[in-house]
């Protein structure tokens, strides 16, 4: 501290400005963004020095960026000057405050930049930690030589500013890290959920047809069956089995056999309602649970008509043929879904036998 700070006549003035500075330092310690710091510093710098203007300058690479100002007339807000071409750059580079009573007489001052301003005297205080961060510029319209107290107060303000800027940088870095970690976690959770859903789908799906498999069928149909029982409404269970798949496999190969299974699944899916639960429950066996109860004969006819349409619309090496059994499920939850699948299977089997007999007796039902 310089000698003049101890002089009694300076104490009252110094005390009120010190109080203002302490308040500013507290505010700076709480600042979380650079613009808060800029606002505090440019205002307090002018108040403490009773100056006609104060500006906040940031070092931006090799340039001095005049971020903001508080002055009786506009100065250079928003402008950038090379470090070597302005007094803030000079102060930043040397880490020294510069006081100039008459700017017109100082060769370091770029006259063309100052000529159109009110500035007659100036004081520039660098803001630094290990590196130059910026500067505080204070300007007077009349000739003024800043006192050591003024310089001391403004240098203290500059030091607190450097600390506040470092806090803001660390805070922003932490915030960014938290943000990135949070985004990574959200991505991880989303991907895990997707993977879990894919595994769940795989566990209940038939990979060849994309229909539900046996497990998926019982999971979904059971829910619908319970709902139908609660609503006391009958539903239906369809069991369909391909005719002659073995012959197709043996004659044309398994690729055609697979295609026949896929075709059968597609026909069933097309014929039935969106809400019906359709599954492939065995090699060439399909089941359907429908909450829309219809006469079994009508359901069978709809399926057989669709099979016929398929055969006439598609040029496959085989003819699609399905034996279909249908049971009506009364809303009686003492009868299990498994039991009803069994009953529909038996109905299908009877139908298959009937078709076989028809075929053997010269009927036209030919699957290949
Ligand atoms: N291509 C293919 N064949 C399968 C698949 N799963 C089972 N099969 C075959 O399907 C045939 C089923 O034989 P069967 O139960 O006698 O059925 P079918 O030949 O349709 O005879 P019917 O039902 O009596 O008309 C067997 O030869 C199985 O090997 C599959 O995923 N792809």
Automatic annotation (TrEMBL):
One of its GO terms (molecular function) is diguanylate cyclase activity. Residues 233-368 form the GGDEF domain. Pfam families: GAF_2, GGDEF. GO terms for biological process: cell adhesion involved in single-species biofilm formation; negative regulation of bacterial-type flagellum-dependent cell motility. It catalyses: 2 GTP = 3',3'-c-di-GMP + 2 diphosphate. Its EC number is 2.7.7.65. InterPro entries: Diguanylate_Cyclase, GAF, GAF-like_dom_sf, GGDEF_dom, Nucleotide_cyclase, Rev_trsase/Diguanyl_cyclase. SMART domains: GAF (SM00065), GGDEF (SM00267). CDD domains: GGDEF (cd01949). Transmembrane segments: none annotated. GO terms for cellular component: plasma membrane. PANTHER family: DIGUANYLATE CYCLASE DGCM-RELATED (PTHR45138:SF9), REGULATORY COMPONENTS OF SENSORY TRANSDUCTION SYSTEM (PTHR45138). This is diguanylate cyclase.
């Amino acid at each position: 501290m310089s000698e003049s700070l101890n002089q009694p006549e300076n104490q009252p003035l110094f005390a009120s400005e010190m109080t203002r500075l302490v308040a500013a330092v507290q505010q700076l310690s709480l600042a979380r963004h650079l613009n808060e710091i800029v606002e505090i510093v440019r205002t307090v710098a002018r108040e403490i020095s009773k100056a006609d203007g104060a500006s906040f300058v940031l070092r931006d690479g090799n340039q001095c960026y005049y971020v903001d100002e508080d002055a009786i007339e506009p100065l250079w807000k928003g402008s950038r000057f090379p470090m070597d071409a302005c007094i803030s750059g000079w102060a930043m580079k040397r880490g020294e405050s510069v006081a100039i009573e008459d700017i017109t007489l100082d060769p370091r001052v770029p006259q063309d930049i100052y000529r159109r301003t009110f500035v007659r005297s100036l004081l520039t205080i660098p803001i630094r930690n290990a590196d130059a961060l910026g500067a505080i510029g204070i300007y007077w319209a009349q000739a003024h030589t800043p006192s050591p107290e003024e310089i001391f107060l403004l240098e203290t303000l500059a030091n607190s500013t450097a600390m506040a800027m470092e806090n803001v940088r660390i805070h922003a870095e932490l915030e960014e890290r938290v943000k990135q970690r949070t985004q990574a976690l959200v991505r991880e959770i989303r991907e895990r959920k997707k993977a879990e859903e894919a595994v769940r789908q795989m566990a209940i799906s038939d990979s060849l047809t994309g229909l539900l498999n046996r497990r998926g069928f019982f999971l979904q149909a059971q829910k619908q069956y319970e709902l139908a029982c609660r609503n006391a409404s009958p539903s239906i269970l369809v069991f369909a089995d391909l005719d002659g798949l073995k012959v197709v496999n043996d004659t044309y190969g398994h690729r055609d056999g697979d295609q026949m299974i896929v075709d059968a699944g597609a026909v069933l899916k097309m014929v039935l309602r969106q809400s019906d639960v359709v599954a492939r429950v065995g090699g060439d066996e399909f089941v359907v649970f429908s909450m829309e109860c219809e006469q079994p004969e009508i359901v069978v006819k709809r399926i057989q008509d669709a099979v016929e349409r398929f055969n006439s619309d598609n040029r496959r090496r085989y003819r699609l043929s399905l034996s279909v059994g249908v049971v009506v499920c009364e809303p009686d939850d003492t009868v299990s879904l498994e039991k009803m699948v069994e009953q529909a299977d038996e109905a299908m089997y009877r139908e298959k036998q009937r078709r076989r007999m028809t075929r053997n007796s010269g009927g036209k039902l030919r699957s290949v």
